[in-house]
């Protein structure tokens, strides 16, 4: 049996946690798209899932993970999901705190770019209003949506920054 679930996540760790909770209930991720997840019913608590933003050399990276019994489930854009059998032990994509810090920096770079694009869209929507003094009914809603997205992304950038700071502190403590 298959099941579609609709969810909006901006925090990749919460999304990952939700996917793993679904796996504990016997629902295994097969595919995903923005806000849509396709699950297939199977054995409960069989896999551990991880997601990652993969930008370069995808095939080489997927082949490398395959040598460690890590299965590439699905990709959409720069995002990919992987899984490993739970019986094989813990499963982490990142080998250490410094790799996690770099990863959070890459995510923040993507989110900052998305914020700038949305800010530019707000300016493009406001410019005709300023020039013609006429308001199209769609403009305020589009601007509000862009501002809302900027707000969500800014909150996540801040959370990632705090997480990075904490990891840097832990890395520094363990180096001494």
From TrEMBL:
**Domain of life, source organism:** Bacteria
Provide the protein name.
DUF2812 domain-containing protein
- What keywords are annotated for this sequence in UniProt? Membrane, Transmembrane, Transmembrane helix
TM ranges are 110-132, 138-158
At the highest ranks, the source species' classification is: Bacteria, Bacillati, Bacillota, Bacilli, Bacillales
